[in-house]
Amino acid sequence: MSILKEANIQLNQSFATKTDAIKATGQVLVEQGYVKEQYIEQMLKREELSSTYMGNFIAIPHGTEESKEDVLQSGLSVIQVPEGVDFGNGNIVKILIGIAGKGNEHLEILSKIAIVCSEEENVEKLVQAKSKEDIISLLSEVN
């Protein structure tokens, strides 16, 4: 099963708070069978420890070490927030990429995402993407 499919992507979303955005990112992972429901709480706990804002309008919410048992299989969720959501300290996030990694796979997934998102033009394409297919092709190295 691929870790990123159309059902994992939500376009043109908007959120009042980063908590709402993180919950939505986790909910996609739950609904698609990658994680148990309690993984969302672990994503919020992880955010309290240190922000998952990565720069370049990207946040990568994921669970804590303790949440590994809540991961059923590796998967990604991608939520596009064109107007942005405030992650604190003036950090605006326009793309949320939720990660569930089975075993140690999350490190490999994170590094692939970091490579794609380190180029501002790739991030801009993700923010401007009009279809789920566009997002899948932009993140094809991760899939």
TrEMBL record:
Any one annotated GO CC term: plasma membrane
Coiled coil: none
GO molecular function list: kinase activity; protein-phosphocysteine-sugar phosphotransferase activity
Record domain PTS EIIA type-2: where: 2-142
Domain of life where this protein originates: Bacteria
GO BP: phosphoenolpyruvate-dependent sugar phosphotransferase system
Keyword match ATP-binding: no
Xref: InterPro entries: PTrfase/Anion_transptr (IPR016152), PTS_EIIA_type-2_dom (IPR002178), Sugar_PTS (IPR050893)
UniProt entry keywords in alphabetical sequence: Kinase, Phosphoprotein, Phosphotransferase system, Sugar transport, Transferase, Transport
Pfam families listed in its UniProt record: PTS_EIIA_2 (PF00359)
Keyword Chaperone annotated: no
Task of the protein: The phosphoenolpyruvate-dependent sugar phosphotransferase system (sugar PTS), a major carbohydrate active transport system, catalyzes the phosphorylation of incoming sugar substrates concomitantly with their translocation across the cell membrane. The enzyme II CmtAB PTS system is involved in D-mannitol transport.
Name of the protein this chain belongs to: Mannitol-specific phosphotransferase enzyme IIA component
The species this protein was found in: Metabacillus sediminilitoris
